[in-house]
Design goal:
The structure holds two protein chains of two kinds. Chain A is of the alpha+beta class. Among the domains of chain A are: 339-366 and 392-402, no CATH class; 409-456 and 631-709, no CATH class; 716-789, 2-Layer Sandwich (Herpes Virus-1), CATH 3.30.40. In chain A, the strands form nine sheets. Chain A has a four-stranded antiparallel beta sheet with strand order 1-28-27-26, with no helix packed on it. A four-stranded antiparallel beta sheet of chain A has the order 2-3-4-5, with no helix packed on it. By secondary structure, chain B is mainly beta. Chain B has a single domain, classed as YVTN repeat-like/Quinoprotein amine dehydrogenase (Methylamine Dehydrogenase, Chain H, 7 Propeller), CATH 2.130.10.10. In chain B, 7% of the residues lie in helices and 46% in strands. Chain B has two helices and 25 strands. Chain B has helices at residues 329-334, 337-356; strands at residues 2-7, 15-20, 26-31, 35-41, 47-54, 60-65, 73-78, 83-89, 102-109, 116-121, 129-134, 138-143, 154-160, 165-170, 181-186, 197-203, 208-214, 224-227, 236-241, 245-252, 266-274, 281-286, 292-297, 301-307, 313-320. Chain B has a four-stranded antiparallel beta sheet with strand order 2-3-4-5, with no helix packed on it. In chain B, strands 6-7-8-9 form a four-stranded antiparallel beta sheet, with no helix packed on it. Chain B has a four-stranded antiparallel beta sheet with strand order 10-11-12-13, with no helix packed on it. Classes of the chains: A alpha+beta, B mainly beta. Chains A and B meet through strand 29, strand 30, helix 3, strand 31 and helix 13 of A and strand 1, strand 2, strand 3, strand 22 and strand 23 of B. Strand 31 (395-402) of chain A pairs antiparallel with strand 1 of chain B, so a sheet runs across the interface.
């Protein structure tokens, strides 16, 4: 309402009203022009030339100017213009080079007035002088511009652009004698109408053709040009050299450009191909259109603001044979739809966040939530021309980093690096991993490992280690088995363990008894473990060593100082042939399934609800008493693995799967295992834990996984002596029969990590080469090559 | 618990997307100023812009990294109706700008006739594939048959969604039991209350993507959508940014129970719904394990959501977008205006879950 009243004052009482509407034409339009009364529009094209009245609700055809029997090429219009002073005067530019004027005041049906046949090729543009009634200007494909006085039969003057075709001519609105013309070679020329001999000024405005230009209705010096280079440029012509004020990037070549009335920085554009939309830009925000009209289904060929003082009505004609009136408030607004924020979670728990500065600037200035953002109420506010430009939108970019120890993913990396997955007896693996988990503050995981040990290893070992610990450092930092291993400490979500607990009705918690009885059997159980669980390959290790050596008891023992538990760089020492199915521990652990498995014992698990506060120690004791086979628990353990996987801790699921090996593998379907493996490996690779990842691949039993590290393993190397490519025969060159893997520094054969220069083929021990290249940039072999190590 | 590190992005217009690479050591930003910038993390943790170049002739909506196995590759999509694939060229530095790496355009995907609103690379195990979606409601899946040749992409699938699309997300699961799946969100704001999230699944037999599910309860414009990293889970978790934050779980119903050959049936539950942003939610992003969801809204804040052992999702942190003192975001998360207001949400999520459940 407010807007309408403003419009009516501007128009002296004749407020424009109307709505977004369109009408079908019989043929594609090439150009449109509006009568100065803002109530009529003329549409011209190859086979159409009509005048429409713009009514409140619709377009009404008023006059068809294409009369006569034979279709004349003179009527095939490339451009049309309606005189802004004389409501009866129109001019068209024909594709055959003819310029025609029309007088609507003629009484006959044929309104054709004058015919100028001076141009040799298509006339691209015609333009009336804004204040002079009889002056018409034309620009043609033949490279000439002509000025006509409608009172005379011929042109008054001819202007030669001295270059290629003229695409647009426009009289300056303020300078009586000046007009601008644009050319296909990218130039813009400024002419004085009194001096046809040479142009006043010429400059290159675009790369490629300049299709259009438009003088600013208020700023006398501003000229907007649009070109095939998809740009709209605004030039200040008042200075000595034309100065580029603004540059708008559109998405397609610019066919028409029209300044928006009453909005100093707005202009409308349409494109010549590909893009059918009309955009309105604020030249100060050159990247995002302020508004977009999407009605047309084919190229928009003509645009015109309906009234020189009304910014809300835009008319357009299109190749899709429609004539449209667009209301500005119905335009879609890419700015409003555009996402003002970007957010990404990083690998280490850090967050990158980019947000529009106005959103994050002042909490107080925030608008309350009022439903849909695109409610029209915002449009009106936003597009009120009186509203000052809010400045270029910009975003604030922040990365929120997790403070050390604040819940980043370091636990994952530490866990992956420190877990032992194979190479030692099951009990040790479990204990080690439990210890790692506990040191990283992951008590639930630690307890799980401990429980696995209880389940799958003879119970005797548990108290023995426990005993050691309590002897070593007292209760506070010992294994939590004794004093804190009750269900209250466990997350209630650990369903499987809870059930495990409930399956036993025994509520004894006599630790002293347990201790003593367990200690008695420590030794024999140890032997049993070695005999049954340890794969023969692993016996190379120090399994038979003292318990004390295996479990350093120093409470101050921080993890970096425990090299014996950190995985060695080269995976693990087990060296086996690379075969398609890696020989994990499972081949050797069949004995773990004790002979007296009685099938469905798991079914017998009774779910007797019990008080959840009693100690789990009672279970280990009970286990010991009844000697339940480990198979009994496999259902529970599988449930537990699934639980961890569903919680997102696939690391635990895979680690347990590998450590337990054949004990649980058969109970989990192959596809799930593969899924876990691939997920975990992907995660390890994200953290660039290549060695751990490779170990997991090696230890996996899934075909699809274990083949992962056997693809693309071919290395192409040259002999370091004769520089010829080595055959596949290993490290002995079959040409010079010398071993190519000699270290260039120490002259010994390299076993292990070998690094070589791809430029000169010389190399050697990684350490040696690194050390050498610290002091010298030349190849240690003395070949003079400048090797680089990075 | 968080430290804000402000970065002078120096984009000339709004930044629409930020994206970390596979290892979290590089970051790409894209903006309406038609450029993409690449940031590398230094040893000290600072982010340095190592490349900035004009990528499109319109606003760049999204930028995303390919798996590093395919090289240092980015894809971007824009208002100019194209998506583009970029590769970093190493070595032979034309040392004009030292420290600036060189990115070359490998391909332009020009099939869309309207603004391309999102682009995402498929999970690595599917090969080098990417999906785009556009404002005209078509999701396109492209594949580079030769991973060594990034300039050849063939359009494999065109999926019509009937609604203007705003965002897509691939299901990241690497399990053979889970067929390739794409969730598509729409920001269509027309008043019809159509469901705005559709899920398409690849059918091995017909070799086409077919609609598997529609999240009927989401009827407001959707701005972002994200599957959580799967990491061995048997079910899928999907976060939706609309006028609020919503989290859905999709549990595949066992194949034997459904007619074989057809699309997988899912048991869909809404497990959380939060309107704490009190405004439109623009972005959702999962942490690497899929246990914490970050969301950002018109209030200029990032909120972190985490489930407890009971699978109740709670707000665990609020970060202010201007990097202003994140004063005790942890307290804020635990103590609570947020928790208090969660209670009614919890209710609604329970209601929602029964409503969202599918009876197939």
């Amino acid at each position: 309402m407010e807007k309408m009243s403003r419009v009516s004052t501007a128009l002296g009482g004749n407020a424009l009203t109307g709505r977004t509407m369109h009408c079908h034409l019989d043929a594609p339009a090439n150009a449109i022009s509006v009568c100065r009364d803002a109530a009529q529009v003329v549409v011209a094209g190859r086979s159409i030339f009509k005048i429409f009245a713009i009514e409140e609700e619709q377009f009404v055809e008023k006059l068809n100017l294409r009369v006569g029997r034979k279709p004349s090429l003179n009527l095939s219009c490339a451009d049309v213009v309606w005189h802004q002073m004389d409501e009866n005067l129109l001019a068209t530019a024909a594709t055959n080079g003819v310029v025609v004027t029309w007088n609507l005041g003629r009484p006959s049906r044929n309104k054709q007035d004058q015919l100028f046949t001076e141009h040799k090729r298509t006339v691209n543009k015609v333009c009336f002088h804004p204040t002079e009634a009889h002056v018409l200007l034309s620009g043609s494909q033949d490279g000439f511009m002509k000025c006509f006085d409608l009172r005379r039969k011929d042109s008054v003057s001819t202007f030669s652009g001295q270059s290629e075709s003229v695409r647009d001519v426009q009289f300056s609105i303020r300078d009586y004698f000046t007009f601008a013309s644009t050319f296909e070679n990218g130039n813009v020329q400024l002419w004085d109408i009194r001096r046809p001999d040479r142009c006043e000024r010429m400059f290159t405005a675009h790369n490629g053709p300049v299709f259009c230009c438009d003088w600013h209705p208020e700023d006398r010096g501003w000229l907007a040009t649009g070109g095939r280079d998809k740009m709209v440029k605004v030039w200040d012509m008042t200075t000595h050299r034309a100065k580029e004020m603004h540059c708008v990037q559109t998405i397609a070549s610019v066919a028409r450009v029209k300044w928006r009335p009453e909005c100093r920085h707005h202009l409308a554009t349409c494109s010549m191909m590909v893009d059918h939309n009309i955009y309105v830009w604020d030249v100060r925000r050159p990247f995002v259109p302020a508004a977009m009209f999407e009605e047309h289904r084919d190229v928009t060929t003509g645009i015109a603001w309906r009234h020189p003082h009304d910014p809300s009505f835009l008319l357009s004609g299109s190749k899709d044979s429609t004539l449209c009136q667009h209301l500005f408030r119905d335009a879609s607004q890419p700015v409003e739809r555009a996402n003002p924020e970007g957010l990404c979670y990083g690998l280490f728990g850090d967050l990158a966040f980019a947000a529009k500065e106005s959103l994050v600037a002042a909490e107080s200035g925030r608008k309350p939530y009022t439903g849909d953002r695109r409610h029209p109420i915002f449009f009106k506010r936003k597009l009120d021309p009186a509203e000052p430009f809010s400045g270029l939108a910009s975003s604030a970019l922040n990365v929120f980093e997790i403070e050390p120890g604040g819940g980043s993913m370091s636990w994952f990396v530490d866990t992956a690096e420190r877990y032992a997955l194979a190479g030692r007896p099951l009990a040790e693996l479990c204990d080690h991993n439990a210890k790692v988990a506990r040191e990283l503050g992951r008590n639930q995981v630690a307890q799980t490992w401990t429980m696995l040990r209880i389940i799958y290893c003879s119970p005797g070992l548990v108290p023995s280690t426990n005993l050691n610990h309590s002897v070593g450092k007292g209760s506070s930092c010992g294994l939590p088995l004794m004093n804190s291993f009750n269900l209250k400490d466990m997350a209630p979500g650990l369903g499987s363990e809870t059930r495990l607990d409930r399956s036993k009705g025994d509520t004894r918690s006599d630790t002293v008894l347990l201790d003593s009885s367990a200690t008695l059997i420590t030794n024999e159980d140890n032997e049993e473990t070695e005999g049954s669980d340890v794969p023969t390959d692993y016996l190379l290790g120090d399994v038979e060593g003292e318990e004390d050596e295996l479990y350093p008891l120093d409470p101050e023992h921080a993890h970096p100082e425990e090299p014996e538990y950190v995985l060695p760089q080269e995976a693990f020492p087990l060296r086996h042939e690379i075969v398609d199915t890696p020989s994990g521990p499972e081949h050797l652990q069949d004995k773990a399934d004790s002979p007296h498995v009685s099938g469905n014992e798991a079914d017998a698990v009774s779910l007797v609800p019990v008080d959840s506060s009693f100690s789990l120690l009672s279970i280990s004791h009970a286990l010991y008493d009844s000697r339940l086979p480990p198979d009994f628990f496999s259902v529970l353990v599988c449930d537990m693995l699934r639980f961890y996987a569903e919680q997102g801790d696939v690391q635990m699921a895979v680690s347990v799967l590998i450590v337990l090996g054949e004990r649980v593998r058969k109970d989990i379907d192959e596809q799930t295992q593969e899924h876990w493996y691939t997920s975990y490996i992907d995660l390890l690779q994200r953290f660039r834990l290549w060695n751990v990842s490779n170990e997991v691949v090696k230890l996996s039993t899934s075909q699809a996984v274990s083949c992962l590290n056997q693809a693309s393993t071919t290395l192409h190397v040259n002999c370091s002596h004769c520089k010829r490519p080595m055959s596949s025969r290993g490290w002995v060159c079959d040409r010079c029969h010398r071993c190519a893997s000699m270290c260039a520094v120490c002259h010994h054969v390299v076993k292990g990590l070998f690094v070589w220069c791809q430029g000169c083929s010389h190399g050697g021990h990684l350490q040696h080469i690194m050390k050498w290249l610290e002091g010298s940039s030349q190849c240690p072999a003395g070949c003079g090559h400048l090797c680089e190590y990075s | 618990m968080f430290v804000a590190r402000s970065i002078a992005a120096d984009h000339k217009d709004l930044i629409h997307d930020v994206s970390f690479d596979f290892h979290g050591l590089r970051m790409a930003t894209c903006s309406s100023d038609q450029s993409v910038k690449v940031w590398d993390k230094s040893e000290s943790g600072d982010w340095h812009c190592t490349a900035s170049w004009k990528t499109h002739s319109g606003s760049v909506w999204r930028v995303t990294w390919a798996h590093p196995e395919f090289g240092q590759v980015l894809a971007s999509c824009s208002f100019d109706r194209t998506a583009a694939v970029w590769e970093e060229i190493v070595g032979e530095s034309n040392d004009k700008l030292r420290g600036q790496s060189h990115w070359v355009k490998r391909t332009t995907l020009v099939d869309s006739r309207t603004s391309v609103t999102d682009v995402k690379f498929a999970p690595k195990h599917m090969g080098l594939m990417l999906a785009t979606c556009s404002a005209d409601g078509i999701v396109r899946v492209y594949e580079a048959p030769d991973v060594m040749n990034l300039s050849q992409w063939s359009l494999q699938h065109e999926i019509a969604c009937k609604l203007s699309c705003s965002c897509i997300s691939w299901n990241p699961s690497s399990s053979r039991a889970h067929a390739p799946m794409i969730a598509v969100g729409s920001d269509d704001s027309s008043p019809n209350a159509m469901a705005k999230v559709q899920i398409f699944e690849y059918n091995e037999n017909t070799r086409k993507y077919a609609k598997a599910e529609t999240l009927l309860t989401v009827t407001d414009p959707v701005h972002d959508i994200a599957f959580a990293p799967n990491l061995g889970r048997s079910f899928h978790t999907l976060a939706v940014a609309t006028k609020d934050v919503r989290i859905f779980t999709l549990k595949p119903v066992r194949k034997e129970l459904t007619s074989s050959g057809g699309p997988t049936k899912f048991e869909i539950h809404i497990v959380a719904q939060f309107d704490n942003h009190n405004s439109q939610v623009w972005r959702v992003s999962w942490n690497i394990t899929g246990t914490v969801l970050a969301s950002s809204g018109d209030d200029g804040c990032v909120r972190l959501w985490k489930a407890n052992y009971m699978d109740n999702w709670k707000c665990t942190g609020i970060l202010k977008g201007n990097g202003s003192p994140v004063n005790g975001s942890s307290q804020q998360g635990n103590s609570n205006p947020s928790l208090g207001s969660n209670v009614p949400n919890l209710q609604s999520s329970l209601n929602g879950s029964s409503a969202g459940r599918k009876h197939s």
